[in-house]
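Fold these two proteins, one after the other.
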Amino acid sequence: MEQKKCICEDGSFYWSVRLTDSNELIGLVSIDDYHDGEYKELSYQFISDFWGKGYAYEVTRYMLRYAADKLDIKKIVSETQAANRASCGLLNKLGMKVMKKVYRFNAEQYIFLWEAE
């Protein structure tokens, strides 16, 4: 798997995620300002054919280390619907903890927090 990075003038970071052998685009990952203005947010989207294969974990784990080691970001949030068990499981596996529960977008949302060691 390969990641291509784009750094924007506003301090946002975007990566396209591609398979190494075919260069097929399978997902996008970003570190961007969270709307509360206090934190950066880790976001990810993968094509459904690639769900459950470990790609999201591999890439997001790398991105969290990159954020801490290269960008000096020590706290990152990620928001997902409480009903999205796969995403909640991924964020737990990454060591993130639910810091807050909110209701928006017509559903209960969990806001997970990751803190660098």
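Now the second one:
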Amino acid sequence: MMTRLRRTGAVLATGSALALGLTACGGDDAAGSVAEAVAQGAATVGLDDCREEAPVDPEAAGVFGADEVRDAYCAAVAFTLDTSFVPGLAHRDAGSRHEPGEFAFAAEHMTPGAAAEWSELVDAALATDSEDDDDDVKIITLFDVYFDSGVADGWVTTPAGGPAAVDVVVTPGHTAVQPGTVAGTLLEVSLTLTANLLVAEADDTVVYAPTAKEITYWMAPGAEPSDPWLVSGWQGEFSTGETSATHPTAPVTVDAPATAAS
């Protein structure tokens, strides 16, 4: 059962079932405390070996260089891992809302134009309770997550003193040249992120919510070879599965219905 589907306002490809390959130790034991949940969780996969796994498109290698394409892919992976599951943003405190400054960290890895747009998107998302007006932000970083099925029901509270997610896996997609944009020639980088979001219950135990995100970035090279690659734009979608009190050890499929280009 799909609980929520988030998508950006950009043009999207047709959605499909997202298989969450969650491999973990610990069996089907109840999560219990945050420490137990973290102990059962698998180590993050995707960053340490990102250069070896980078999908180097021959045309992109011809334009930017193979090493630079690998650098861009690793930058996209690092950005995704740093921004997707932030403990202080994933949950919504009763009677309070997040402040725009809490989202500013993501802009540090964006081009000036993208950073300005990000600020506008955050302001718009925080000014409304409409689910359709915050998708462009949530595809980058989950905030105010709500579940209406499974063990958890209501606004998510992430565990205090622990991560917002475990079993985080990044799977490479593709790279491609994006010529003729306002920002110049960009590198398109796609990847898939899967994880188990941790949800804190009233008794301080935690439950799991399988989450998948498919995202495509447009990466801009720096002015100098030593400058880092920056995010110039993005599009994508994410979905979450039904929450469970036991730690999933088998792949979970989250059905993402088809989305039309907008």
